[in-house]
Amino acid sequence: MQTLVLLALVGFGAQLVDGALGMAYGVTSTTLLLLIGASPAAASASVHLAEIGTTLASGISHWRLGNVDWRVVLKIGVPGAVGAFLGATVLSQLSTEAAAPLMAGILLALGLYVLARFTFRAMPVRSSKPLRLPFLVPLGLVGGFLDATGGGGWGPVGTPALLASGRIEPRKVVGSIDTSEFLVAIAASIGFLVGLGHAGFDLGWVVALLVGGIAAAPVAAWLVRRLHPRLLGALVGGLIVFTNTRSLLLAVAPDAADAVLPAALIVVAVVWATCVAIAARAVVAEKRSARSAEAPAPVPAESTTTPVSR
After folding, report:
1. Closest to 173 (Cα-Cα) out of 157, 188, 185
2. Taking each helix axis from N to C terminus, what angle separates 25-35 and 154-165, rounded to the nearest 10 degrees?
3. Using CA of residue 222, residue 117, residue 78, residue 192, what is the dihedral sign?
4. What is the pLDDT of residue 245?
5. Do 103 and 40 meet the contact criterion of CB atoms below 8 Å apart?
6. How far is the C-alpha of 197 from the C-alpha of 188, rounded, in Å?
7. Cβ neighbours of residue 47 under 8 Å, at least 6 residues apart?
8. Biased-composition ranges for Low complexity (predicted)?
9. CA within 20 to 30 Å of 211's CA: 8, 192, 256, 287, which one?
């Protein structure tokens, strides 16, 4: 019971972050399931089944607040579903011993990307050019495949790419990625069902993650209009890097982990804290610059000097 309550809280927190950033529900939830002993395939399968409900709730919430571009949803969501089905099929065929370091490596790489992206890069300037299929189809295929094999990756792949294109405003990037993930979650769940059968899903985990995620969806859709993404992205990216550094070392070199792991985690923690500090300073500087730009120009004071009479 205690584990299910914890998973519900994780589902709430993961969806809160995902709905505000457009990423990190899968990587956060999968990372925790791996930590409590789930196999990689079972963890990814359970998370994706829960995501069918959470992404539906998130999509509805974003749609009601005007955060969704439906053309982008269809153009990226359909190829994403194809990639997710293929990724779920591949992961289902791997042994636990082979899948564990693979998933930890993918999650670690995604965490590093999220950490670096939100620590060192500002939001790009928006362009008026439309998003084209030659850009969205490969992006969807790669994002969907990584999402299924890594237990997460749709957001970390899709959201930064759409933001970097500058062709859709940030709140609609987040809303469209979250909404299209509904198709990805369905396709991945079907792939895992075909590859693993009903035994691949832990319904207790699914329900707990689902309840927490659905409760957070409307809050996250509201926050996306008000929350600065850089600081939250740095915090979440560092958490993913920290936890999956441990998982990867334990999977690749279990005999040497006792000697190497403490030092590695200390280094990661220091880098994480530094990145958060950099992101926080950038946020403060951006707000200060915005206030300066909005401030009215000072009115020149009238001269009070009495003219000299002749």
Report:
1. 157
2. 160
3. negative
4. 84
5. yes
6. 13
7. 25, 26, 29, 30, 33, 151, 152, 209
8. 292-310
9. 192
Give the number of residues written for the chain.
Answer: 310
Token pair 């979440």 is found at 236
Q: Please compute, for residue 193, the number of CA atoms within 13 A of its CA located in the half-sphere on the CB side.
A: 9
Q: Per-residue pLDDT tens for 218-277? A: 776 666 566 666 776 777 678 778 877 877 887 777 776 677 888 888 999 999 999 989
- Nearest-angstrom CA–CA distance, 83 and 207: 25
Beta-carbon contacts of residue 81 (< 8 Å; ≥ 6 apart): 144, 183, 184, 186, 187
Q: What is the 3-state secondary structure (H, E, C) of 178-226?
A: HHHHHHHHHHHHHHHHHHHCHHHCCHHHHHHHHHHHHHHHHHHHHHCCC
